[in-house]
Amino acid sequence: MPFHPPEPFRIKMVEPIELIGKEDRRSALTRSGYNLFGLQAAEIFIDLLTDSGTGAMSQEQWSAIMLGDESYAGSRSYGRLAETISQIFGFRHFLPTHQGRAAENILCALLLAENQSIPSNTHFDTTDANIRAQNGVPVNLVIDAAYDPKEKHPFKGNMDLNKLENFIAQTGADNIPFGMLTITNNAGGGQPVSLENIRSVSAIYKANNIPFFIDACRYAENTYFIKLREPGYGDKSTFEIAREIFSHADGATMSAKKDAHVNIGGFIAMNDPELYQLAGNELILREGFLTYGGLAGRDLDAIAVGLKEGLDERYLAYRLEQTSYLAEKLSEIDIPIVLPPGGHAVYVDAKSFLPHIPQSEFPAHALCVALYLEGGIRSIEIGSVMFAHTDPNTGNTIYPQLELVRLAIPRRVYTQSHLDYVASIFVNIAAKKDSLRGLKISYAPELLRHFTARFEPL
Ligand code: F0G
Fold it and tell me: Which of 26, 157, 383, 390 could lock onto 191 through a cystine, CB 3.0 to 4.6 A?
């Protein structure tokens, strides 16, 4: 029997969850326009919508909250967070933001002009939208293996270095105000990026004078993948690996709602003093003063403690194993998933699970709806609802290569038996999958449509 390390914690406080009846789930779906973002939390049994801001804080974090200093400027909490960020990330400056997308907005608003391009391995949807909101062009240059759910590449989040070099040569470095890399690569299956790749990406950006920003939301999970899989890093601590990762970048955007184990918060960090000054002005306009950026002092303290806990190797060993446990369970019952499993989530390959539903009818979203109806499980579509868009030149719809259902696992929240339950619901769905039908969109806004679109079943 494969060994999965048990949770390195025990439960001190509980939150009841309840599976409401199937007819109630059916009417919740109708009411919400078949958009799972429109459901009430009380209507959900197991919530795998996101690992963002949904984790359980530790007793140390809750204790730190009581020490929060709510001074408007120069709080002790800010000082504690500044010290932790400087230790782990090593950048000269940082600004707190209320979450990751606020950091992305600051970067895009300050540096990006119309029609300029921002390359990355794969931009997450909020980054993609922040770039488009400035009339910029997000460009995804991940290795081809990322698009093959079956290829077990150890670092499937890697940037394709040839694609990056060619892209810069064609576009011209002047039209690329900064370059990015998302670790782990959420939109591409939560897959890690190797340190070798990070070094090379950094060298390419540097040779072209393009500032390099890392989208660092799940950097801690990425460090542990490097420790496990990259030759030469087995004996390095996750802290040392993190230091090395960020030493190659000019800055980072971070949603603390992931690997900093908090319910809200984020930051932007950079070395460039001029950019720091401009970003500070933008922060004061939209988020808050330099030393709190839209957060309470106590939030800053919770992030400071959470950042350290996020790098704890006993925790990370359990965390990545919990994800592979669910992946193994699903593989055992022949549910096609992205292999190897990523850090924070298992991604089901809905295109091969439901080959009878064309992309224009949203197969991954159809599976999300089925998971809720069958078992009260909330998941998220990472496919055509999220990423299909109209080509401005031809008017044709461009569909993404992958149609995925992400089962994101909140940190320190669900136990192994919750995951067994999820697998059992997949057994029920697999038995009747040929009868599942697609959906059509009845309303959608232009940007980030997946949050508020409404659907009708076909
Ligand atoms: N970058 C990545 C890679 C993300 O996964 C997210 C958020 C963000 C940036 C934005 O951060 O939510 O704090 O503004 N991802 C969440 C998710 C929403 O469900 O994957 P935020």
Answer: 157
| Ligand 1 lined by 215 (C-beta under 6 Å) | yes
Atom of ligand 1 nearest to the CA of 182: 3
Structure tokens at 265: 């918060």
Model pTM greater than 0.85? yes
Give the amino acid at 43.
Answer: E
Instruction: Check: CB of residue 440 under 8 Å from CB of residue 117.
Output: no
- Hey, how many other C-beta atoms are within 10 angstroms of the C-beta on 100? 26
Contact criterion met (CB below 8 Å) for 86 and 271: no
pLDDT (tens digit, 9 = 90+) per residue, 435-449?
999 999 999 998 889
Cβ pair 253, 266 in contact under 8 A: yes
Which residues fall within 8 angstroms of residue 333, CB to CB, at 6 or more apart? 423, 426, 427, 430
pLDDT digits (tens, 9 = 90+) for 4-27: 788 999 999 999 999 999 999 999
DSSP character at residue 43: G
Is the Cβ–Cβ distance between 254 and 269 less than 8 Å? yes
- Strands 404-408 and 345-349, by their bridges, are antiparallel
Q: Which helix (H) or strand (E) holds 373?
A: helix 363-375
Question: Sign of the CA dihedral 288, 289, 290, 296?
Answer: negative
